[in-house]
Design a protein that fits this description.
It is built from 2 helices and 6 strands; from the N terminus they run E-E-E-H-E-E-E-H. The chain has about 120 residues and is an alpha+beta fold.
C-alpha cells in the first residue's frame, strides 16, 4: 500500500481524480501559521492509502489536478519510493535519498512554498 496526505484546498476547482481507488483513513482540520498568499489559513487534511501499482497513475492525476497557484503539493510513499507531486511536475525517488528530496524541495521553493511546508516524510 502507498500512504499519503492530501490537502483538500490544494485541488483546483473542477478537479477530478478517477480510476484510482483511494481509501481515506483520516480527516483533520488544522490552522496553519505558515500559509502564504493564495493559501487559506485553515486546511482539510485527507490521509489516504491506495495500492502501490496505482502510484504512477495517481501522481499523473494529482499533477494535473493540483491548483497551479498557491504553492501546493501532495506527497505519498510506497514501501520503497517517495512521490512528491506539484502542479505539472512529479518527483519520485528512493525513500531516504537526500538528492531526490533536495531536488523536490528546490522545486517547491522555486514555486513559493515556504520552508516550514517542505517537511514531508520519506
Amino acid at each position: 500500500m502507498l500512504e499519503g496526505v492530501l490537502i483538500a484546498e490544494s485541488l483546483r476547482i473542477g478537479a477530478r481524480l478517477t480510476d484510482v481507488p483511494l481509501q481515506v483513513n483520516k480527516i483533520a482540520r488544522i490552522e496553519v501559521s505558515t500559509a502564504v498568499t493564495g493559501q487559506p489559513r485553515q486546511w482539510t487534511l485527507l490521509g489516504f492509502a491506495a495500492e502501490e501499482n496505482d502510484a504512477e497513475d495517481l501522481a499523473e492525476q494529482m499533477a494535473a489536478n493540483l491548483a497551479p497557484t498557491g504553492g501546493w503539493y501532495v506527497n505519498y510513499n510506497t514501501a520503497t519510493e517517495a512521490f512528491v507531486v506539484f502542479p505539472g511536475r512529479v518527483f519520485r525517488y528512493p525513500r531516504g535519498q537526500a538528492e531526490g528530496r533536495r531536488e523536490a524541495q528546490d522545486h517547491g521553493r522555486s514555486i513559493g512554498i515556504p520552508e516550514p511546508q517542505l517537511d514531508w516524510q520519506d
